[in-house]
Specification:
With 446 residues, the chain is mainly α. 86% of the residues lie in helices and 0% in strands. The chain has helices at 2-70, 76-103, 105-111, 119-131, 133-148, 152-176, 180-199, 201-204, 219-228, 230-292, 296-332, 338-351, 355-370, 374-387, 389-400, 402-435. The radius of gyration is 21 Å and the shape is globular.
Length: 446
């Protein structure tokens, strides 16, 4: 069991880090090519990524989880129905993003907070990624299904290939061809096609246990998929909402320089967050598999291993940031802006104190979903993503200025961890009562 745990988590950690390189590579090359205003423009457009990834992960993790639970207990027609309905839902949602990109990208950019100094750069980037939304959403769906179809290595290879192509094309488009923000966006939009091309090997060779069937869409099935993946959606979308709120608060305190500093801090944190996401994505197929076999002891053991790993990684991440914060910020501060450097360095040291609580919350949310109880997962995601963090951003920034902004995420994650412990204890008590026969076991989603 430990061997399976290490295989799935390490592969998915590498995959998730590879996915985070999409944004980090843009951050680096845009900082080099367009300075602080380019960083600010990118950060204003990032919430759209959160929304697209949120929908993709919701459908992918929800559909993949259901596929994994049913795989050993039903025939191929039903599992193919899960995949087909997932694809139908993905294309329907992508069509909405596509329409926004084609007809409403300019007012959408203004709505996100772009002023006259950064509008053109932000609009050019945003318009491009909205028009390629189907690729981003379908890529996330495929990655999740591949993991649940015993192909985590190929899923990792696809994600890394996409990320590597993004880095190479960023350099070519921004510096060699002088395409600016448009080039950065184009490089990012090509990457998911590369990723899906690599993963298609799984289907071409016939190793896939899922395929599209010509069936009538089932709202009941889609609803079930959405419920199972809802925690991933809430978590990702909340991240986008937080960026919008933070951009608003920081702009009032330090203007575009503050937004650029936040871009450096937040995009660096994406890598650490990707590690926790990788752990949760790695244990999800294992937890769903053992839950499908009614082996709750194995599920609890996987949770134990995952929490130990998140604690070790959280300590390592903060230690690295504490020692190298100056060097990290300098990479993105090519113009040697002294104010940007100072604000971002202080921000990293305060912001990264959230790491142990964040890892705990992300893993525990997946644990609940794997037991087909998305309610607690949704609550954890809502608490850390909106209910705590939005009011804290305004309260702490009013009390402590920019330092209050940096402390908002750690405070929200800490409070969420306390609430998650209560939810976990209630769930544990319920499981104990079921094992003793005091409650009937139900697979009904709550």
């Amino acid at each position: 069991m430990k061997r399976s745990f290490m295989k799935y988590t390490l592969l998915n950690i590498i995959s998730s880090i590879g996915l985070s390189v999409y944004i980090l590579a843009d951050t680096y090359f845009i900082a080099k090519g367009m300075g602080a205003n380019g960083l600010a423009a990118l950060n204003l457009a990032l919430p759209v990524f959160n929304f697209m990834n949120g929908f993709g992960l919701m459908l992918g993790m929800g559909g993949g989880s259901r596929f994994s639970m049913l795989y050993c207990h039903t025939d191929r027609r039903e599992t193919d129905g899960i995949f087909t309905n997932t694809i139908i839902a993905a294309l329907s949602i992508a069509a909405v993003f596509e329409l926004i990109g084609l007809f409403f990208s300019a007012p959408f950019t203004v709505m996100l907070g772009a002023d006259e100094n950064v509008f053109e750069m932000s609009h050019g980037y945003l318009k491009m990624i909205l028009r390629f939304s189907p690729a981003f959403i379908l890529n996330n769906v495929m990655i999740c299904f591949m993991r649940n179809d015993s192909a985590p290595k190929l899923a990792m290879a696809g994600m890394l290939a996409g990320s590597l192509s993004n880095i190479i094309l960023d350099y070519i488009f921004i510096f060699t061809m002088d395409m600016g923000m448009f080039g950065a966006a184009l490089a990012t939009c090509i990457a998911p096609f590369i990723s899906m091309a690599v993963m298609s090997i799984h289907i071409i060779t016939g190793w896939n246990a899922f395929q599209i069937r010509f069936i009538k869409p089932s709202w009941k099935t889609i609803k079930n998929i959405l419920l199972l993946g809802s925690h991933a959606f809430v978590s990702e979308v909340s991240g986008g909402v937080v960026i919008i709120v933070f951009n608003f608060v920081i702009y009032r305190v330090l203007g575009n320089t503050g937004i650029a500093a936040y871009g450096v801090v937040a995009n660096t944190a994406i890598v650490a967050t990707a590690v926790f996401t990788g752990i949760s994505s790695g244990v999800q197929p294992l937890m769903c598999k053992y839950h499908g076999q009614d082996n709750d002891e194995a599920v609890r053991y996987i949770l134990h291993l995952a929490l130990i790993m998140t604690g070790i990684i959280a300590a390592a991440a903060y230690s690295l940031v504490f020692i190298t914060d100056h060097s990290i910020v300098s990479i993105f501060n090519d113009s040697r802006d002294a104010e940007l450097q100072a604000v971002a360095e202080k921000g990293m040291r305060l912001y990264f104190t959230c790491m142990p609580f964040m890892g705990f919350n992300i893993v525990l949310a997946v644990y609940f979903t794997s037991h087909e109880y998305p309610g607690p997962s949704q609550m954890i995601s809502l608490l850390r993503g909106t209910i705590f963090i939005i009011p804290l951003a305004f309260i702490l920034s009013a009390l402590f200025g920019i330092n209050g902004v940096w402390l908002t995420v750690p405070a929200a994650e800490l409070l969420t961890s306390l609430a998650a412990l209560v939810l976990f204890q209630r769930f544990t008590d319920r499981q104990w009562m079921i094992s003793r026969g005091y409650l009937l076991k139900s697979r009904k989603l709550t």
